[in-house]
Amino acid sequence: MERCGEGPPAGSAERISFLIDKVTAFTHNTISLTSGEEINHERNLYSTLRKEFGLWKKTIEDSGITFSWKLGQEVAHYDRMYRGRELPGFINYKMFERVIKEQIKLLEEPAITKLQQVSEMIKKEMLKLAQESFEGFPNLIKTAKIKIEDICEDKEAAAEAMLRTQIQMEMIVYTQDGRYGKKLGKRKRTEANDAPSQSVFSTFSPNSSISSNSTTLKEMMTHLKSYYNIAGQRLADYLPMVIRYQLLQESSVELQRQMLQSLQNKEEVEDLLKEDCTMGETRTRLQQRHHRLHQARSLLSKF
Fold it and tell me: Could you confirm whether domain 12-281 is CATH 1.10.645.10?
């Protein structure tokens, strides 16, 4: 009987109030869901999203590991083919910029894929909440689903545009001097303490150009990995922030706005309150059973 509810009242004013209460409860639960609050002590969207954000950070870290191994070959090739009259120890900034841009570009599609995956997860949770909130009212469910689909699609497109813009900005290759200096100094101290057997250069033969110009190449690779670490951290934070802003915060606010706007048309109110015939029949049957049980309890209490 709790699941079936009391059903819409007969009076016109009461019916409008009934619909407002149902829509308000749904939008309130939607905002709670997208804000990270638990719904019915069992549904916490942020616990799922936190795992996805962790996987995105791991994607960046794994790309950085691959980047480190590729750097040796890349830098050695450049040194053989393009180093001109500069002495060892002087870093070519154009080469630095090109390598960084290529590596950051590799993160663009994985970022978009992760955005789409998370968007689909959020949409499914919102649709499930609408199904539960408006059970027995097919027109209400249909209206909510249409709005959720449209809003999620729009917000996903906006989030994708923001993410692609951020990737393009990352390819400008910039950070504050102080931040870069600290990151570079920290990496140099770390590498100075590493054993030679752990160095990436140990994978190359003694006759390679890395062995002959190890000072120049090691310096360049240290700079490249230091900057990639900064850019990677920015992207690791930016994707979750875009998702939280567009797909969670903005989506729930827009859904609330559109659902409340649908109540302004009195003609639509009656259509939205049309109840599933099976729900009404089930409620009537349960009410009759409930009444009979009360009668039986009253008779038994006399013995």
Answer: no
